[in-house]
Design a protein that fits this description.
This protein has a single domain, classed as Jelly Rolls, CATH 2.60.120. 13% of the residues lie in helices and 43% in strands.
Length: 137
């Protein structure tokens, strides 16, 4: 998954093509390129890519802060009484503990950045998603 993941003395560059462990959640594909489990010297929880077909949706309630940076398409996030739509070049901030729903209004690609304790919270879910993916092949 990572190129030189333990080499935090040099600047690194990642693209969606560098991501190898793509997982699927509610029809939405996601893959970390850096996360605190596999690169413990990283000072954040995770950075990765998401691809979602138009119309896909999921619910969320994270135990960590997450930021979504839209790089293609448009999405809508609903939480409590708040409805926000973001498109290319816009950022959504999802605070820890806030529940809501995510909807891809168009074919969507985004970059996500998650704060710690991302690894601890997602370790089991990631393993289950990767197992399900390997069984479906």
């Amino acid at each position: 998954m990572y190129r030189a993941a333990d080499d935090f003395h040099n600047v690194q560059k990642f693209t969606a093509d560098d991501a190898t462990d793509w997982m699927e959640w509610s029809g939405i594909a996601l893959a970390d390129v850096v996360n605190e489990d596999e690169a413990p010297k990283a000072k954040l929880g995770a950075v990765g890519f998401t691809r979602a077909p138009k119309g896909s949706h999921s619910s969320f309630e994270f135990a960590y802060d997450e930021v979504l940076i839209v790089t293609k398409g448009k999405c809508t996030v609903r939480s409590r009484d708040n409805v926000l739509t973001a498109q290319v070049g816009e950022v959504l901030y999802l605070p820890a503990g806030v529940s809501g729903t995510f909807h891809a209004d168009e074919e969507l690609e985004l970059v996500y950045v998650a704060s710690s304790p991302y690894g601890a919270v997602n370790r089991e879910m990631k393993a289950a998603l990767l197992r399900a993916k390997s069984r479906s092949r």
